[in-house]
Amino acid sequence: MEQLLETMRRLRAPDGCPWDREQTHESLRPYLLEEAAEAVDAISAGQLDELPGELGDVLLQVAFHSVIAEEAGTFSYRDVEGHIVDKLVRRHPHVFGEVQVADADEVVTNWQAIKRQERGGRERTVAEQIPASLGALAREAQAQKLLKEERGGDKVLIHEAFKGLTPDEAGVGRLLSAVVAYAREHGVDPEVALRAHTDRRLQAAEPAR
Prior knowledge:
Blueprint: H1 2-12, H2 18-22, H3 29-44, H4 51-72, H5 77-90, H6 93-96, H7 104-118, H8 126-129, H9 136-151, H10 154-161, H11 169-185, H12 190-204
Pfam families: MazG
Domain NTP pyrophosphohydrolase MazG-like: 23-96
Protein name: MazG family protein
């Protein structure tokens, strides 16, 4: 990792790369999303020989943001690494402490309880629990998961979507929400399913002339 950081520092130096020097946390946002998505694509396609390169691109984004912050004096890569190591140790008391757990479900329950403790006991709002930068289908799936009890379940969503469906933004939104509900009811990730479907269509398409 230190070699990668040194490479980024060289690229950001006054006599380095003009493009790299111009980048900011804000300008790099689409690249972080893109590189993470490409790593997911490699996993979904079973292209494990390409995964090291894709994960390297994700790691590059971590290094890029760390060096930018280092220059501004806000944080460094050591802070990034230290934060995640501390969190992993803190949230796995059954591994690094004396807590006993029966199964993975209990691990998740403890994890959520520790997260609440870290926030001083404050419960996060639904909006705070779902990243705004998630794809629309993935975000809807997370929203349905969190709101399931309030909304009455997936079958209600599906039924409501086709009741008085209107050909406008609101109607299409209800229909897409129902599609996500249908996917979740059958254990399918709607974002991954649509990506795979689009990939198949593109691969089957005739080459452009």
